[in-house]
Amino acid sequence: MPDTVVSVYQATLTFAVAAIALLASPGPATLALAASGAAYGLKRSVGFFAGITLGLVIAMTLVATGLYVVLHSFPIMATVLTVLSIFYMVWLAYRIGTAPPIKDEQAVVTPGWGAGFFLGAANVKAYAAFAALLGSFTLGTAPAWEQAMKALICLLVCVVFDFLWLFAGSKLRRLFIHPTWSRVLNVSFAILMIATVAWSFTLTQ
């Protein structure tokens, strides 16, 4: 019995480390949160953060239940969803890249929870990560609890590390006072977002 408990702990720790590596690494959502924190501030980005979290829950549910595989078994539907997610992420990168300096922030409409929700639910990197984590790891617990435990760990990793990305971005905020630095940082975030979107799609090939 003790050996079994130790084995479960070791498997859980390994899974948690893998979850951090896959879900906390730079991607469209994490970079968007950092960019939003830098451009709009922590408080004004909370809704965006909440929307991304909810969208990731939907993405994880689709993967866990197998519905994601079913949706992508229809080529036309898969293509439409892919094109929509690409256009949306490029549009969001454009919004961030063209955000005005802090002195003009009162006139800016910040990304809300709806924008975050769509980004989380359409995040290809998240789908690839959830598929790898939920389908390739075994914790050694009872089958009824196995998937629930893995999903809970994934959710905790997403919430904690996404918030850290948002917080880290907000600490860059003082650099956005200068118009030139503001433009350089906004455009850099936008380019990195588009680059990670392109990279994310290679994970599904």
UniProtKB/TrEMBL annotation:
Subcellular location: Cell membrane
Membrane topology: Multi-pass membrane protein
Location, primary (coarse class): membrane
TM region(s), chain numbering: 12-34, 46-70, 76-94, 115-137, 149-168, 180-201
InterPro entries hit by this protein: LeuE-type (IPR001123)
Source organism, top-level taxon: Bacteria
Transmembrane listed as a keyword: yes
Alphabetical keyword list: Cell membrane, Membrane, Transmembrane, Transmembrane helix
Name under which the protein is recorded: LysE family translocator
Native source species: Pseudomonas azadiae
